[in-house]
Design goal:
This protein is mainly alpha-helical. Helix content is about 90%, strand content about 0%. It contains 2 helices and no strands. The longest helix is centred in the C-terminal third of the chain and has 44 residues, at about 35-75.
C-alpha cells in the first residue's frame, strides 16, 4: 500500500510541477496566440487542482498514520 501512495503522490507532484512551469513560462511571454492562451488557462487550472490534490493526499496520509498510532496505543494499554 505504501508504494501505491508514493506513486500517486509523486505523479501528482510531477504533473503539478510541469503545469506550474508551463504556466510561468507562458505568463512571462509578451504575447500569446489563442492556442497558447488556452494552454495557459489549462495549465493554471491543472496547477491549482494539483496543489489541492497534493494537500488532500498528505491529509489522508496523516489521518491514516494517526489512526494507526491510536490503535497501537489502545492495544498497548490493554
Amino acid at each position: 500500500m505504501k508504494n501505491v501512495f508514493q506513486e500517486v503522490f509523486l505523479t501528482a507532484v510531477l504533473l503539478t510541477t510541469i503545469s506550474a512551469g508551463t504556466s510561468l513560462y507562458l505568463a512571462s511571454q509578451p504575447t500569446l496566440s489563442p492556442q497558447q492562451n488556452l494552454l495557459l488557462e489549462s495549465a493554471i487550472k491543472t496547477w491549482q487542482r494539483g496543489d489541492i490534490a497534493i494537500f488532500a493526499l498528505l491529509g489522508l496520509k496523516s489521518t491514516n498514520l494517526l489512526r494507526s498510532q491510536n490503535q497501537s496505543d489502545k492495544e498497548e494499554s490493554k
